[in-house]
Each structure stands twice: as structure tokens, then as C-alpha cells.
Amino acid sequence: MKIAVLYGGISKEREVSLSTGKGVIDALRKRGHEVIGIDFHPEKLDDILQLDVDIVYIGLHGRYGEDGKIQALLDMLNIPYVGSGALASALAMDKARAKLFFEKVGARVARGQVLYKHSYDEKATEIDLPLPVVVKPNQEGSTIGVTIAETERELREGIEKAFDYDETVLIEEWIDGTEVTVAVMGKQGEERALPVIEIVPKNKFYDYESKYSAGGSEHIIPARISAEQTAYVQKYAVLAHQALGCNVYSRADFIVPKDGSDPVILEVNTLPGMTPTSLFPDAARKIGLSYEEMVEMLVQLSLK
Q1: Which residues contact 300 (CB under 8 A, 6 or more apart)?
Q2: What pTM was estimated for this model as a whole?
């Protein structure tokens, strides 16, 4: 087939997307496809408007890639693409709204508070959660702009930092536990969860460096959690995928509390990274799929 791969982009996750794009392009060429690589920029839409391909593989991350905008454009052009549609992508990117869908299907979510830049007042706005808390931009990925605040000063500085990236900021309770992730794959209605991966970061928490630097974190498959906890996260990874209306593939992140209570779902990634250190390819390898086979399967599922 003739396949266009969109990568790069202008979000804070550009470097990650460049790596994802390179991996996907190489994989598709090894499978015998004719591949066009496009370093996407919203000011160069002619690259998209003039496309004549069988399908587009979206290797973008963050804004203008994972938030539904490029999906909506491709829908208007009637060009098929790999992965979730515009609405599901936008919902998953909006962490605060996505949590409403997770709760609707019965998944446990972290207690949280949403702040808006237009109404936030450092002196007057009260934070209802006890410290420590996690402060994050509502629509960024790869832990960009995230702060774990243990003091009032760190909290206020973390809020200002997060507002540098987003008009909306999400504050959530800090939960001491094991971070795990669950890849989901399959056509709509027949999705299945792949083996659960435990993430052991070298840094204090699973930050940008831990995610993308060689040796920055250890991925343990299967995760060292109980059979009941494993069943829980796999169940709710699929239900969360379906509740948002995701398609073909996604990856859900959870915290498994040390106190033995139910795991907490953090977010769903509709375009999980496909870099050499990424989690989705690790899960695919565990079920016997090479990187090239995994990419091919995602393309074929999307065409169906």
C-alpha cells in the first residue's frame, strides 16, 4: 500500500514524535509498503490536502496530533487513518473530562480539582486537597509541565508552571504505589488488553527523562501485582478505551496503591509512543508480535 506517516509536529513532544515516526516508517518499508514521511506543521496543510494515499499513520503526539484536530481534517478529506477518531482523541487528551467517562464505567479515579487560568488567583483560590499532590497541565502528555508538590510553595510554583503549558490545570491527590500501563488493541467491540507492564523509573517519578532516555526506566512484564489487580487494570483499560470511543489501539496508565485498595486509572493515550523505549511495543512483543508485525496489524485493523 501507499502509506503516509505524519510525525514531528509542533507540540512539546516533537522529539518523541520524530523517534516514533522513524520507527514506524522503517517498519512499514520493511513490510513492503510505499511510505511517504511528512514532518507535520499546521501552517503547511497543503502536505495533507494533496495527499493521495491508501491510509495515514499518525505518529504525532500532543497538540495538533493527539487532540483530534488532525483526525478531523483527515475525516473531512475522507482519508483513512490508523487509530481513534476526532472525538475520542479530543476526549482522551482532556484529562479532566476523560475522568468523567472512567467513573461512568466504574473505574476508580484520583480525587482532583480543576483550575482555570482566567479565574485562578494565587492568594484567593483554595486548593481542597491535602499535600502532597500532583499538578499537571490538563492537555499535555509525556509528563510535560508536571509537578509533585509536597509543600505549599511547590504547589503554587507547580500551578504557575502548568499554566505555562495550558489554560486548564488539573490537581490530583498523590497516591503512593506502583505505576503500571495496559496496552489495548483490537477492532471495536473485540478489544483485548495486552500483558500489564510495571514501570520502575530511575528518577523520583516517571518523568520525561525516565520515559525517553535509554535506561531511564525498567519495564517489568508481567507487572509484579496480584492476579486480582492485574484483572482489574486489564478490565478497566478496555472499558475506558470503549467509553471514550477509541479505535484500534490505546494505552491506559494506572497507579496500584501500596495499601491494597483498587488501582486508580490516570489517563488513556490514544497515540502511545512507538520509540525504542516505548511501552506499547514492549507489550506487543510479549504476545509474540515484532515491532514490524505490530505496526502492520494496527494498519490492517484500521482498514477494516
Answers
A1: none
A2: 0.91
